[in-house]
Amino acid sequence: MIIGTGKVYLYIGWSRSLKEKRMVVKSIIDKVKNKFNVSIAEIGNQDSYKSAVIGIACISNNTSYSNKCIQSVINYIEENTDAVIEKIEIQML
């Protein structure tokens, strides 16, 4: 069993409150859940209204499939948000 994980660090510069940030993060999470068969959640910086950390996980029996799955989700997030991606971490377990 191969577990592919990814962390996406986002900067939401125009956000003025946690409510605005949550709207952006919830939109990303909902879009990804509807398109991909992955687990996704906000996993860090919950108290900061300018930044967010989103975690993604994909389970497979093939390392290349897990890597491709995580990369596809990250590319989709890049294309479908106005937030700036500051950093991306990908790990295969």
Question: What would your notes on this structure say?
Answer:
This protein has 93 residues and is α+β, with helices and mostly antiparallel strands. It has a single domain (2-92), classed as TT1725-like (Alpha-Beta Plaits). It has 2 helices and 4 strands; from the N terminus they run βαββαβ. Strand 2 and strand 3 (51-60) form a beta hairpin. It starts with a strand and ends with a strand. The model has no long low-confidence stretch (mean pLDDT 92).
CATH topology tier name: Alpha-Beta Plaits
What is the CA-based Rg, rounded?
A: 13 Å
Category from helices, strands and their pairing: alpha+beta
Please give the largest β-sheet: 4 strands, antiparallel
* Overall mean pLDDT: 92
| Unreliable segments of 5+ consecutive residues | none
Query: Into which percent range does the helicity of residues fall?
Result: 25-40%
What is the CATH class name?
Alpha Beta
Q: CATH superfamily name? A: TT1725-like
Record field, number of beta strands:
4
Query: Counting H and I runs of at least 4 residues, what is the number of helices?
Result: 2
Calculate the terminal CA-CA distance, rounded to whole Å.
Answer: 9 Å
The largest sheet has its strands arranged as 2-3-1-4
Per the principal axes of the C-alpha atoms, what is the gross shape? elongated
